[in-house]
Design a protein that fits this description.
The protein is of the alpha+beta class and 284 residues long. It has seven helices and 19 strands. The chain has two domains: 64 residues, no CATH class; 208 residues, Fumarylacetoacetase-like, C-terminal domain (Fumarylacetoacetate hydrolase, domain 2). Strand 18 and strand 19 form a beta hairpin.
């Protein structure tokens, strides 16, 4: 299934995408309102009803797609998780390859829609893009083994880990440079795990103003998704709706001295998941 949050001349609702239509799922779990996190927490028991629902529906071209989840408890991202990107980080910024998984927070207030504008804050002149595969947790879990990790995944999204590089390198942690408002576009929907044969065999690409800048297979991760879930759940309880951004390949803007300016358009695509496309605009 492709689970989505959308609006159509009114409030935001939860739906599913079927072909070129969006089916409104509001009647399946009305108590959830427009909270995808609430729906995911009960997805196993609601799944049959969701799959059977076929009305009401809207033309996909006539709705506005919102961030497929806007209320997660955590938005976590791993740094330098593709070897080629780690190499360019060492060459360009002198950052050595980490000896273990390097995790940081993106504050949930940065979450943005799949086609919404991304702001270039006036306090930064080094805003960069990072194409990533996002994982959405589906079950409350702790101390998950690698062998059991896939069972706690609800699905996947396309993600752009927008980064203000000057703020990223200003402090020992990356959180501030990763968390400006609008700097977490995700979408276009949550593709449930059962639709993806192998999440480590997907092609990930990024186009900057129509020019391809990033291309890699998710199989090139240093620490794969199951390693990541095992590692994180050793420390903290993961909750339904939590977002894990799994790393970006080589070709980020800082490597070529390219930083975002108003009017730039960045499109990120992951095979089987769709694309997000965001225009960068001047912000406050």
């Amino acid at each position: 299934m492709k689970l989505v949050r959308f609006s159509q001349k009114g409030p935001t609702r939860i739906g599913k995408v079927v072909g070129n239509t969006v089916v409104d799922l509001s009647a399946i779990y009305p108590e959830a309102g427009n909270s995808m996190r609430a729906l995911l927490a009960r997805l196993p028991e609601l799944r049959a009803a969701i799959e059977a629902c076929d009305l009401p529906s809207f033309d996909l071209a006539e709705v506005t797609l919102e961030a497929p989840i806007d209320d997660p408890q955590k938005f976590l991202a791993i740094g330098m998780n593709y070897k080629a990107h780690a190499d360019e980080a060492l060459k360009g910024a002198g950052i050595p390859l980490p000896t273990s998984q390097l995790w940081f927070n993106k504050q949930v207030s940065c979450i943005n829609g799949p086609y919404s504008e991304v702001e270039i804050p006036s306090v930064s002149n080094q805003v960069d893009y990072e194409a990533e595969l996002g994982v959405i947790i589906g079950k409350r879990c702790r101390n998950v083994s690698r062998a059991d990790a896939r069972a706690v995944i609800a699905g996947y999204v396309v993600c752009n880990d927008v980064t203000a590089r000057d703020w990223q390198f200003r402090s020992p942690t990356y959180t501030l440079g990763k968390s400006f408002d609008t700097h977490g576009p995700i979408g276009p929907w949550i593709t449930t795990d059962d639709e993806i044969a192998d999440p480590h065999a997907l092609t990930l690409t990024l186009d900057y103003n129509g020019e391809e800048r990033q291309r890699s297979s998710t199989g090139d991760m240093i620490y794969d998704i199951f390693d990541q879930i095992e590692y994180l759940s050793t420390v903290m309880t993961l909750e339904p709706g939590d977002i894990l951004a799994t790393g970006t390949p080589a070709g980020v803007g800082i490597a070529s001295g390219t930083f975002m300016k108003p009017g730039d358009v960045v499109r990120v695509t992951v095979d089987g998941l769709g694309s997000i496309e965001n225009t960068f605009v001047a912000g406050r």
